[in-house]
Structure formats: C-alpha cells, structure tokens
Specification:
By secondary structure, this protein is mainly beta. It folds into four domains: about 35 residues, no CATH class; about 40 residues, no CATH class; about 210 residues, Sandwich (Jelly Rolls), CATH 2.60.120; about 150 residues, Sandwich (Jelly Rolls), CATH 2.60.120.40. The chain is about 5% helix and about 35% strand. The chain contains one helix and 33 strands. The radius of gyration is 46 Å and the shape is elongated. The termini are far apart. The mean pLDDT is about 90. This is DUF7257 domain-containing protein. Pfam families: DUF7257 (PF23918). InterPro entries: DUF7257.
C-alpha cells in the first residue's frame, strides 16, 4: 500500500520469527519482504518530497512555505513596552515612528526657544530657555539673575478717612490715654480726614497711643520695621518759652502686652528715641537729634529700625540716626507690633498740639533674593516711561517730590497718577537708565538748587546741586538741573524725583517749577530699560 505520509505515519512491523518466515510471507507482521521494500521506498520518497533540508532558511525557495511573522514567537511582544522586539508604526507610547515623520517644535522636550502668550508660558522650562509672548510682544528668559526679586513682608498704608470727633474712625486700633487719662483733656481723633489732636483746653497735659490691632498688619514679619507718615497742613505747634514741646509718637517693636517697645518722638526742632520694657513709666532715652526742622506741612517722613539703628528720613534724605549701642531694645517674634501716638503738653493758653498726620504706613524692611523667573530681555517690547509737568509746582526748601501730570509714554503701566503723581512703581525688575530734569522759574530762583533720585523713600547716589544766584538776580531763562544714571530696581520699587533748595526766607513762597508750553520747557522724567 502507498505511504500515508505526510497525512499520517506509516507503521513498519517485522515478523516475530524472521528466520523461519519466508520472504513471500508477512508472518506475524503486516508486510512481506517485497511489500516492505516498496512501502519504505514510498516513505523515503515522501520525505524527500515534503521535508525541508537541514540548511533551509524559510524563504520558500526549497519547496517549503515561507515562515510567517505571526509564527516567529510563541508570545509576540509587539508594542508591549519600550524594550519590546517588535513595534508597529503609529503615535502610541511604544510604537515606532515612520521614516518620514515630522515634529511639532513646541512639543519637543528641552527646546531652547518657544512662542506662547503671557498666560501660556511653559510650565517646566529648562534654565536658559527663551520665549516670545505674542500678546505682549516681549522676549523673556528663564534664568537666575542676582537680586531680581524683592521680599517685602508686610506693607500696609492706613488712611484716616473715617470721620470721628472722639477717636480714630474705623476699626483696627486700640487707644490708650495717658497722663490725665481723661479724654476731656484732649484726644487723638480723626474729625476731618487726618489724624489730629483735638485740644481739650485748660491747664492739663495729655497723651494717647493707638496700638494697631488689625489682623492683616498689626505685626510685621520681621524685626526690621519701617514706619512712614505724611504730615498734614497743620504743623507741630511752636513751643512757648519755658514750656515743653508737643510730640508725634511712633512705636516700634511693640510686645504683645505693650510693655516693651521703642518710641520715636518728633517734637518741635527735636527728635527723641526711647525704649522701655515696663511700659510708659519705664521709658528711657536712647538718643536725640536736635536742630531739626520738623514744622513742615504735607511732608513725608520715614523712620526705619534696622537691627539696632533707628534712621529718620525727610522726603528721602537722611536726617540722622540713633543707635542702640547698649543693645537694650528687644527683638524676636513677640516684639513686632506697632502704633502711633501724640503728646500734648500744657502751655499758656491750653495745650501745645502735635502735627496732623495724613496717613501712616507700616512695612518690613525690604531685602532681595535671586530666583529663576521669566526675566524680560532687552529686545522686542521693553519698558519705557516719559513723564512731564504741564503746570507749575510750588516747591519747599526742605524738599518736594516732583509731580507729573502728563504721561507721554508708559507702555508697561509703571505710572498711575490716580495712586501717586510723583512715584513710578516698577513692574519689571532689572537695570534701567534714569534721566530726570528740573526746570526752574526764570524770574525767581534760589541760591542753591538740589535734585536727587529717591528709591523707596531713600535718596540714591544720583544727586546734583548747583549755585543759581537767587534773590535779586533774575537770569531771564529757565535753568535746568538734571540728574541721570543707570540704576537697578526690583519689582514694586518706587522711584521719585526730590527737589530742594536754599534761598532767603522772603522767597520761600515764590519758588516754583517752570513750565512753558510754547518752548516745550518742562520738568521731566525718562526711564529706559537696559536689561536684566
């Protein structure tokens, strides 16, 4: 019978007694000798026909079929992981990319440059990456530049706009009355939009302090405190001979029980600093500044207690410093309160009154740190400010901040006349070139004129002074006093231009800045961004 291979398997049995079995007989087997040779031959022929050679390579060229991909592994790992042997083409996590594939540039990791908007900046940029913001037209770089961020802590301004004839209007204060302790003998109140002393009359001295209690600003974040205030139109009353001066009092590092503090007292021509650890009765003098002109209306004052030094500034210029060399003033988290007060002693006709206060501002001393941030680059759109005066401004000899009422250019919103017409608030950190010029009245001029660039209430090194020959001398043209230079600013730094002069007393009410529209002669301020 023919072979059953490859559909089946042939069986070749042999006789159990081959020596006794004739060749023509199958004996106990299935095939006789001839049939056995025939069928074995058929099987060999079938093997030669269907079996692959030892050297076969699955290409189908030797009569066998080609090896299909599906049969190469028992468990295919196609697209199963990053280390899989086989990958199909596609966009999946473990698929392979086509040879003609393309990339979206903004989706590439670690790109050095990107295009976005000011609200869609890359979330995890690499250091050095640059971007262009299509909505602001600004170029920025993610990088760390020295002192590019100001840390300011508490910074709060308190106006006295709530009218109250008997106390400070509104909330946020706890008032203590000293000396007579009787509010009928005078009281610190806000009857007309300023903090003022309401004279009680009679031969009674009195004093009061308002401790700040508002949760948002009753304490500073650090030991280094700054109190800024502006006097009102009513200045401190001159002290009659043989009598005691009135004082405007400002309290630093007040303890939670109000028994420990440093007190700055601004009197008529004198400034005193006191400390105590046992309340008002234990106040001890730390130091004094004498011969100071304190009777100045609508004037900004600033006092900073940094470490152990209490420094006093008037419109940006340092008046003097009082140092706690004995290290008696307290420091620490329990000594960060503050307050404002007034002292009204008796005089011939009643009480000597302190100056009115338009506002008071409490702040931590600002310090700088360096962080990675989207820093503005000096290409594309950069900050530019140009301001000028179109009205004449009355100037005081002790110092006046120039007011600007015309905004020529301010493409980053640094200047807001509704908030302050003298201060420029920097919204971008970096180095800027400042150019300021003051125009003086051509007919009435001071003897000596001064101009200074003031940052955060402190005069910078950029100052200029000149001899102008005033009094009976009229130059006939507006003299210019300019000051300029490169300066570094942090975010929210405030720049002002301070003008002061020396002149005879009879000219004090006649000194003005000058404006002439026909000749474009005007006081001005220009700010240009230089770079990070």
């Amino acid at each position: 019978m023919p072979t059953s291979y490859p559909d089946g398997i042939d069986s070749f049995t042999v006789p159990s007694l081959p020596a006794e079995t004739p060749l023509s007989s199958a004996g106990s087997g299935q095939l006789n000798h001839v049939e056995s040779h025939r069928d074995i031959g058929d099987a060999v022929t079938a093997l030669q026909t269907y079996a692959s050679k030892k050297t076969h390579d699955h290409d189908g060229g030797d009569g066998g079929v080609k090896l299909s991909q599906a049969n190469t592994h028992e468990d295919a790992d196609t697209d199963s992981s990053l280390t899989a042997i086989h990958h199909t083409l596609g966009t999946g996590e473990f698929q392979a990319a086509a040879g003609n594939h393309t990339h979206n540039y903004n989706n590439l990791p670690g790109i050095p440059y990107g295009i976005c908007t000011s609200t869609s900046r890359p979330g995890m940029p690499t250091t050095g990456m640059m971007i262009y913001e299509t909505d602001t037209q600004c170029f920025r770089q993610w990088a760390l530049y020295d002192n590019n961020v100001a840390v300011s802590g508490v910074d709060s301004i308190v106006d006295f706009n709530t009218a109250d004839n008997d106390s400070i209007g509104g909330s946020g204060w706890a008032t203590t009355v000293y000396d007579s302790g009787d509010t009928s003998h005078g009281v610190m109140a806000t009857p007309a939009g300023t903090l003022t002393w309401v004279d009680g009359g009679g031969a009674n001295s009195n004093a009061a302090v308002a401790w700040r209690t508002d949760a948002d600003d009753k304490e500073t974040d650090s030991d280094d405190q700054i109190i800024t205030w502006e006097t009102g139109s009513l200045v401190i009353e001159r002290t009659p001979p043989l009598y005691t001066t009135a004082f405007n009092d400002f309290y630093f590092r007040v303890s939670s029980d109000r028994q420990s503090y440093v007190k700055l007292s601004v009197g008529d021509g004198i400034i005193n600093a006191w400390y105590t650890t046992s309340g008002r009765g234990g106040e001890t003098l730390l130091g004094s500044l004498s011969n100071v002109n304190t009777a100045l209306a609508n004037t900004q004052w600033r006092a900073s207690l940094i470490e152990r030094t209490l420094s006093i500034y008037q419109t940006g210029l340092l008046v003097g410093s009082i140092v706690d060399n004995r290290l008696v003033s307290m420091k620490g988290a329990n000594y960060r309160g503050w307050g404002v007060g007034m002292t009204a002693p008796i005089n011939l006709l009643g009480q000597t009154t302190p100056a009115d206060i338009n506002y008071v501002r409490i702040a931590d001393e600002q310090y700088y740190t360096s962080v990675n941030r989207w820093t503005l680059l000096p290409i594309g759109k950069v900050p530019e400010v140009q301001l000028s005066q179109t009205v004449k401004q009355k100037l005081t000899s002790t110092g006046t901040y120039l007011n600007f009422n015309k905004e020529i250019v301010d493409n980053f919103g640094f200047f807001n006349a509704a908030s302050s017409n003298s201060g420029v608030v920097f919204k971008e950190p970096g180095r800027f070139y400042i150019d300021a010029a003051m125009q003086w009245n051509p007919q009435v001029t001071p003897d000596i004129a001064n101009v200074a660039l003031v940052v955060n209430g402190t005069a910078s090194m950029y100052q200029n002074a000149t001899f102008m020959r005033g009094n009976s001398y009229a130059p006939g043209f507006s003299q210019t006093l300019a000051v300029s230079g490169p300066m570094r600013f942090a975010i929210n730094d405030i720049l002002q231009v301070r003008v002061s002069y020396t002149a005879p007393a009879d000219l004090g009410s006649q000194i003005f800045s000058w404006f002439d529209g026909d000749s474009n002669t005007t006081s001005r301020l220009s700010i240009t961004y230089l770079g990070p």
